[in-house]
Design a protein that fits this description.
- The structure is a single chain.
- The chain is mainly α.
- It has a domain at 2-55.
- The protein has 3 helices and no strands.
- It has helices at residues 2-13, 15-24, 27-61.
- Helix 1 (2-13) runs antiparallel to helix 3 (27-61) and helix 2 (15-24) packs antiparallel against helix 3.
- The longest helix is centred in the middle third of the chain and has 35 residues, at 27-61.
- The termini are far apart.
- InterPro entries: Hc1.
- This is Histone H1.
- Belongs to the histone H1/H5 family. HCT subfamily.
- Might have a role analogous to that of eukaryotic histone proteins.
- Pfam families: Hc1 (PF07432).
């Protein structure tokens, strides 16, 4: 849960700069918001990687159970296709 706390702290630290940028049109606050959002993106990617690695490690420890393959799609029956319009006389 430590990662969640870091993420939450980062978002909360940006609150004042968001307010300054959108409410008071402070350009410097916009720069800080963009910097914070880039840091948020980097942090999110690191957390995603950590979660995936932890998930894969636990699956390998459980005997390497594999996911079931998706069921093959059946071809549509020929009768379901739309018939060509009849010719006019």
């Amino acid at each position: 849960m430590n990662n969640f706390g870091k993420l939450k702290d980062l978002v909360m630290s940006l609150e004042e700069d968001f307010s300054k940028f959108y409410d008071k049109q402070n350009a410097a606050a916009g720069t800080r918001v963009r910097k914070g959002m880039q840091e948020l993106k980097t942090m999110a990617q690191a957390f995603r990687t950590e979660v995936q690695n932890t998930k894969n490690a636990s699956a390998a420890a459980a005997g390497g159970a594999k996911k079931a393959a998706p069921a093959a799609k059946k071809a549509a029956p020929a009768a379901a296709k739309k018939a060509a319009p009849a010719k006019k006389k």
